[in-house]
From TrEMBL:
Keywords recorded for this protein, A-Z: Membrane, Transmembrane, Transmembrane helix
Membrane-spanning ranges: 12-31, 52-76, 82-102, 123-146
Lineage, uppermost ranks: Bacteria, Bacillati, Bacillota, Clostridia, Halanaerobiales
Domain of life: Bacteria
Organism of this sequence: Selenihalanaerobacter shriftii
Protein name per UniProt: Uncharacterized protein
Amino acid sequence: MGIDPMKVLCGILPESLLLVYVGLGLINIKLSIRNYIKITILYTIGLLVVRYILNFAGIHILILCLFLSLLFKIIAKVDWNLAIISSLLSLILLLLGEVLVYSKLLTYFGISIKEFLNSNNLILFNLIIFVTKVPLLICAFLIYFFEVNLLNSVGDSNAQVQEF
């Protein structure tokens, strides 16, 4: 299966940006737009390499979680604990949305996941991709408008988990 530039632009890049924003936002780490974009682009490149070039099906989630943690550590300059927690939180929310939505929507449309991923129907692809991101979108909304977070951390650098 090749890499479709429209699927990357319309599905994978927004998903990556949501993962980065929500993951860091849930632990109260705010970055500049430039740093969000850096992490998003690097994560997207890593995702494409792991998923489509190296074809590590199944184990790709673990590899991408570690890669996202590494990006958070290097670019966001957070502790390893926070980097790992942040990447796990965002990937758990992503997987939650995918598990809940893929099974229902793909059954409704009568197609398998393999047919869906190999499909050239960009409208169906975008519809399902964006609906699976509902948990991430809700969290992003709560983080942006209500400053919801799960940890009390310091900010852009030298972030530490504080005792409750």
